[in-house]
Design brief:
Ribosomal Protein S5, domain 2, globular, alpha+beta, 34% helix, four-stranded mixed beta sheet
């Protein structure tokens, strides 16, 4: 069974194309016009062992907000399409990932109930020339709402904001890989559904 999600989203602010293969090899093809965000999405695909394509054309001359938000919406929708009714998945996944001095713990539940717990303080407001650090939380809010998952992100240490966010994205990737692993045949829920 193919577990691939494809989403095309077009608004007055952005045009986004996302393809996700849950059973890929970690091959990524990412171009959003926001270099730091591209780097983080590359981590998501590679360490989640998802084949991930994200192509975005947005109003980055204003700022990165619309591109990051709309990419999060499209990625969440593509994930939901790829795992379908979630039959046979492990459902829960967690990971603790270090990047030098930064350490982040993440837990995911493919519950069908969108909820984000975000415990990640960073010391600076902008990375590079135009990436507002508050956009990382906003990105995950959009993913969670559209994939209909519960996601807990707890950054335990980190002095360097780049390292902190890299540990966040890698931890989400590993936890997601574990949650979507097919380990059974039924629906892992006493309700009989994950929606």
């Amino acid at each position: 069974m193919s577990r691939v999600g494809r989403v095309e989203r077009a608004t007055k602010e952005t045009t986004i194309e996302v393809v996700i293969d849950l059973d890929g090899q970690g091959t990524t093809d990412v171009a959003t016009g926001v270099p730091f965000f591209d780097h983080m999405l590359d981590q998501l695909g590679r360490h989640g062992r998802l084949d991930l394509t994200v192509k975005a054309d947005g109003d980055t001359e204003i700022d990165a907000h619309h591109t990051v938000e709309d990419a999060g919406i499209a990625i969440g929708q593509a994930l939901a399409e790829a795992w379908g009714d979630r039959t046979g998945v492990e459902r829960f996944g967690d990971a603790t990932v270090p990047i030098d001095e930064a350490l982040t713990r993440v837990a995911i539940d493919l519950s069908g109930r969108p909820y984000l717990v975000w415990d990640c303080e960073v010391p600076i407001d902008v990375i590079g020339t135009n990436f507002e650090t508050s956009l990382v939380k906003h990105f995950f809010e959009a993913v969670v709402a559209n994939a209909r998952i519960t996601l807990h992100v707890h950054n335990l240490s980190g002095d360097n904001t780049h390292h902190t966010f890299e540990s966040v994205f890698k931890a989400v990737a590993v936890a997601l890989r574990r949650a979507v692993a097919v380990t059974g045949t039924g629906t892992p829920s006493t309700k009989g559904v994950l929606q």
